[in-house]
Amino acid sequence: MKIFIDTADIDEIKEACSWGVIDGATTNPSLIRRAVERRGGKVSMEEYIRQILEVVPGPVSLEVTATDVQGMVRQARILNEKFGRYGEVVVKIPVNPSLDFAGSNDFDGLKAIRVLENEGIATNATLIMTPEQALLAAKAGATYASPFAGRIDDYIRSRLGLKPKIDFQKGDYFDSDLLLKIGENRIYKIINEKNGSLQSLYMDEDVRNLRSLVYDNGVYSGVDLLAKVLRIYRNYGFKTEIIASSIRNARQVREVAELGVHIATLPFHVIKQMVRHPKTVEGMRIFTADTVPSYKKIFE
Q1: Which residues are catalytic?
Q2: Can you tell me the distance from the alpha carbon of 159 to that of 151, in angstroms, rounded to the nearest whole number?
Q3: Fold of 2-165+221-289
């Protein structure tokens, strides 16, 4: 699995790249703006983006801000022309750029992806929340598709009535297996109490409401979303690579790696979590305290 760093902080990018495990980066305009502002006007946004591309040893996703097909294609061409000489530019295009639930421009992102890919400009279909959206992104020819695992976890928890920053924090692990077991037990309890016919239980409002809380249209976690997308892509041999995005903690990284996703884009602090364990620290203390003096002389 390739690892991208999900940040626009050049200091974080440089340090992470020095570890020898970074294959690319993903950014967004807000992250870049904040990073530039922290430098007090000492560098322009264009210069800052150039620095990122020069440091990262692989693809760097840069995002458009337009929401119509013509605007997205125009901005993508500008990004590719301005920064393509400094590194490997990938243009982030929202899979659906509509600002309301039934927008007239629902398919403009897919249209833009098709145009750009035909021109040889690599694209990253972003804001993917369903396997269906990922399927369409691959059909449009996207170079990469980015399902947002952490946001789906947050969405399901919120549907259950859990409050962000109160009942769970952004980096908390979402134990979807536990939720499924609790949900199944509750459903079995309702079924046993009602003891109705198969038809009546299937149509029962309480059973259906409980099941809909546990699942988001058949998806029960961000990792499950990625598993479903991966299965679809493998079924049909799509060349689009999956970027596991909105990753919140090291355990989630391991779970998407077990699935076999192509890439995970990770915040700086999550990459640091991955290398740490208390028993490793304990082992190092024991090993260094127990070093044989005669062995040390080998290195002198």
Answers
A1: 92
A2: 12
A3: TIM Barrel (3.20.20)
